[in-house]
């Protein structure tokens, strides 16, 4: 094994010192060899608590949206002959769980609704002082609705100014 002394005063040394790199890699290897088995054993013993679901006390100001699609024949929910939402159907968003709206109408109505709530609270500064007064959007999405439909609804309500978007799901009985 050859040892370089720098090659004299006339030529610069061009060898890379790999000792610090090897030291760091060995330390990381030892850390991961110890940490990974500990983490795996900890995760396997994790017990998730089960709570009885309670009805939420929604603020009247919260906006409720339902996202669904038409069936294979283009029939919307609530119309006669509706065979159920289809992944190949067109997106349908229901404002307040009742009124079907387009993307533009969703943005406009959500903005107008939020603006009215903010003005009634005394303006943006007054509503920011009490975060409990800020309305939220709750989305109930059909299991067969494509994610693009839900994402479009989220985009529109956030563009209208709603800072919090949540999802409503059916509770699952843990004993079943």
TrEMBL record:
Source superkingdom: Bacteria
Q: What InterPro entries would the database entry show?
A: ExbD
Q: Which residues cross the membrane?
A: 20-40
* A Gene Ontology molecular function term of the record: transmembrane transporter activity
Q: List localization entries.
A: Cell membrane
Keywords linked to the UniProt accession: Cell membrane, Membrane, Protein transport, Transmembrane, Transmembrane helix, Transport
- Family classification: Belongs to the ExbD/TolR family.
What is the predominant subcellular site recorded for this chain?
membrane
Task: Give the GO biological process terms.
Answer: protein transport
Q: Tell me what topology the record assigns in the membrane.
A: Single-pass membrane protein; Single-pass type II membrane protein
Q: What is this protein called?
A: Biopolymer transport ExbD protein
Cellular component terms per the entry's GO annotation = plasma membrane
């Amino acid at each position: 094994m050859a040892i370089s002394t720098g090659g004299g005063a006339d030529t610069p040394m061009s060898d890379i010192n790999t000792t610090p790199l090897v030291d760091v890699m060995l330390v990381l290897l030892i850390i991961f060899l110890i940490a990974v088995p500990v983490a795996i054993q900890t995760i396997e013993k994790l017990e998730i608590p089960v709570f009885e679901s309670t009805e939420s006390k929604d603020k009247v100001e919260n906006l409720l949206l339902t996202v669904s699609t038409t069936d294979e024949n283009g029939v919307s929910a609530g119309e006669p002959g509706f065979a159920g939402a289809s992944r190949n159907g067109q997106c349908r968003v229901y404002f307040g769980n009742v009124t079907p709206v387009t993307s533009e109408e969703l943005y406009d109505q959500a903005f107008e609704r939020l603006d009215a709530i903010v003005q009634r609270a005394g303006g943006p500064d007054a509503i920011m002082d009490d975060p409990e007064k800020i309305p939220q959007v709750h989305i109930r999405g059909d299991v067969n609705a494509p994610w693009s439909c839900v994402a479009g609804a989220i985009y529109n309500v956030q563009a209208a100014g709603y800072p919090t978007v949540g999802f409503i799901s059916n509770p699952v009985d843990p004993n079943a």
